[in-house]
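Why should sequence recovery work at all? Because a backbone constrains its sequence more than one might expect. Tight turns favour small or flexible residues, buried strands favour hydrophobic ones, and helices have their own preferences. The token representation captures these environments compactly. In the example below, the structure is given first.
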């Protein structure tokens, strides 16, 4: 009796044994999920030089991650940025109050200046215009010597 090796009768069994790689079956959503879960850093330097003299140097650092991953790494600058948080309206209100206060102070300064100018005009009008009638007092008349 001769024995023959057992050969697969169905070709589908070989197709199911293929090795799945990380790039197979990855959709954009899968890739985005991995990037946000792990985070990714892109870094680069750009230098512009003429005759070994550096004119411009730009350092680019880009971090892409989820908010939770960023907080875990200690990156949370957006929490204190007033334009990205709810503090925007507070800053607008505070700015408006300061503008109103500045306008009232400027109006008060203008009224004080006008009052001072009018008092100077009144005191100038009360003084005699003809000085020949009232000659200036000499120092001897102001401080007579005591004998």
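From this structural description, the recovered sequence reads:
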């Amino acid at each position: 009796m001769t024995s023959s090796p057992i050969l697969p009768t169905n070709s589908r069994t070989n197709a199911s044994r293929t090795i799945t790689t990380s790039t197979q079956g990855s959709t954009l959503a899968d890739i985005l999920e991995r990037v946000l879960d792990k985070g990714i850093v892109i870094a680069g330097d750009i230098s512009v030089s003429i005759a070994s003299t550096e004119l411009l140097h730009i350092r680019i650092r880009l971090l892409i991650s989820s908010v939770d991953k960023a907080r875990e790494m200690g990156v949370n600058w957006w929490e204190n940025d007033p334009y990205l948080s709810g503090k925007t309206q507070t800053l607008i209100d505070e700015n408006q109050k300061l503008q109103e206060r500045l306008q009232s102070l400027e109006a008060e300064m203008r009224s004080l200046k006008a009052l001072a100018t009018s008092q100077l005009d009144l005191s100038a009008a009360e003084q005699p215009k003809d000085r020949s009638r009232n000659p200036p007092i000499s120092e001897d008349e102001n401080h007579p010597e005591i004998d």
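A few observations help interpret the result. The CA atoms of residues 39 and 50 lie 37 Å apart.
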